[in-house]
Amino acid sequence: MDYDEVLARFDPVLGLEVHVELSTATKMFCGCANAFGAEPNTQVCPVCLGLPGALPVVNGKAVEAAIRIGLALNCQVAEWCRFARKNYFYPDMPKNFQTSQYDEPIVFDGHLDVVLDDGDTFRVEIERAHMEEDTGKSLHVGGATGRIHGAEHSLLDYNRAGVPLIEIVTKPIIGAGERAPEVARAYVTALRDLLRSLDVSDVRMDQGSLRCDANVSLMPKGSSEFGTRTETKNVNSLRSVERAVRYEMRRHAAVLASGGSIVQETRHFDESTASTSAGRPKETSEDYRYFPEPDLVPIAPSREWVEELSGTLPELPWERRKRVQEEWKLSDEELRDLVNAGALELVTETVDAGAPPAEARSWWVAYLTQQANTRGVELPELAITPKQVARVIELIAEGKLTNKLARQVVDGVLDGQGEPDEVVAAKGLEVVSDDSALQSAIDEALTAQPDVADKIRGGKVQAAGAIVGAVMKATKGQADAKRVRELVLAACGQ
């Protein structure tokens, strides 16, 4: 259904569940390493494989991270809570249950104010954030989609089983209207920025350390009863969150308008078509047969500890925005452009790493935004860090790189060729600053273009551009053009 018609006939209701993999050294209930990218099934033990007799132990750093996240989200911290078993069978859950939290989460009743594209603020109420463990990973081999349907066989990697997760669940988001897809994207964006500032996760959506499940339902205009919801699982980019919500709103409306009923189910989002497809019927909480985890003691954070953790919270993203706007003398429009581009936090982190604000802004808003568009990813998902960008800017300031060479260095970092200095060394990209080497190239260029040399000697200094261009070509762009011009004019007596 056309989106305008959807809005004329229905009111959307959203519910967003964001799963955050914590960047602790070890897993949630055992001592196995928590690191991305290891060889399959090399980071496992009897506990995370669910072998008989293996007993779990809670990761204290994960509990600490959960409390800090809750405090940053304006949540209440439970004085007493415990884990529960969420029972279901799936091949990548070796115990046949997930150790999670059910009716007693560690933090609850919070909110996050998110800034929309036009600068308006929308408050998203937080129901809860609870601790749990991640599942393993299935690889379906054969078939065209990479999913189980049509696959010849499946492989299981349990490295991810037991990785600490925080699931952050919103209350029903009502009243967003036509801006519901935008609100969804803005919320996940703000949450990602917040989590990055807390340094509890690398929030890499492309690697699955931040995943969003988007619940959507529609209410007919004038109704106060929620419609049947669908849950689009594991949406893994900010742009896709917005697209998935918009698509589901249009799909729901078309089904309802034709007299059909919405099936409560999970859905899969297809990046290439910006559409969803049916997954499995969605269980209710009763289907999971929750009961208290008998192998783990309850958690009772002391008020003193919570207060201590509150004092460790860093400058939060919205506080930083206000500060940098004043320090950099940005207009509201300039600040909004940086926020909308997803560049503000990246720029501020680049400045924190030692780069001047103007240069940091220029790199992220211009060349790196262009690269993100070319590579089809969100700006924060580019494979380059603010610290690396700051180093490139430093190399330019030191005269070791020109802007053109610096772009080649950035490309090398984006392509996984190493740190900026390693790319410079491997490709031999450092500026030629030896005057004798430059002079040799200048003499060759003047000899090759005697008519141009005569014009320069005759006072037509603008003709020096041809010689400078020849020298830059001879040095493969690695000469300092300004210094070359100075030497050309000196050689011609100007």
TrEMBL record:
What's a single GO BP term from this record? Answer: glutaminyl-tRNAGln biosynthesis via transamidation
Q: Where is the Asn/Gln amidotransferase domain?
A: 345-492
InterPro entries, alphabetized: Asn/Gln-tRNA_amidoTrfase_suB/E (IPR017959), Asn/Gln-tRNA_Trfase_suB/E_cat (IPR006075), Asn/Gln_amidotransferase (IPR018027), Asn/Gln_tRNA_amidoTrase-B-like (IPR003789), GatB (IPR004413), GatB_Yqey_C_2 (IPR023168), Gln-tRNA_amidoTrfase_suB_CS (IPR017958), Gln_synth/guanido_kin_cat_dom (IPR014746)
Nucleotide-binding as a keyword? yes
- Which of the seven top EC classes does this enzyme belong to? ligase
Entry-linked PROSITE patterns? GATB
Give the catalytic activity: L-aspartyl-tRNA(Asn) + L-glutamine + ATP + H2O = L-asparaginyl-tRNA(Asn) + L-glutamate + ADP + phosphate + 2 H(+); L-glutamyl-tRNA(Gln) + L-glutamine + ATP + H2O = L-glutaminyl-tRNA(Gln) + L-glutamate + ADP + phosphate + H(+)
User: Might you give the EC number(s) for this enzyme?
Assistant: 6.3.5.-
Q: Name one GO molecular function term.
A: glutaminyl-tRNA synthase (glutamine-hydrolyzing) activity
Amino acid composition bias (Basic and acidic residues), ranges on this chain: 280-292
| Family affiliation | Belongs to the GatB/GatE family. GatB subfamily.
Physiological role: Allows the formation of correctly charged Asn-tRNA(Asn) or Gln-tRNA(Gln) through the transamidation of misacylated Asp-tRNA(Asn) or Glu-tRNA(Gln) in organisms which lack either or both of asparaginyl-tRNA or glutaminyl-tRNA synthetases. The reaction takes place in the presence of glutamine and ATP through an activated phospho-Asp-tRNA(Asn) or phospho-Glu-tRNA(Gln).
PANTHER family in the record = GLUTAMYL-TRNA GLN AMIDOTRANSFERASE SUBUNIT B MITOCHONDRIAL AND PROKARYOTIC PET112-RELATED, GLUTAMYL-TRNA(GLN) AMIDOTRANSFERASE SUBUNIT B, MITOCHONDRIAL
Listed under subunit, the entry gives: Heterotrimer of A, B and C subunits.
| Protein's recorded name | Aspartyl/glutamyl-tRNA(Asn/Gln) amidotransferase subunit B
Task: Provide the species name.
Answer: Saccharopolyspora erythraea (strain ATCC 11635 / DSM 40517 / JCM 4748 / NBRC 13426 / NCIMB 8594 / NRRL 2338)
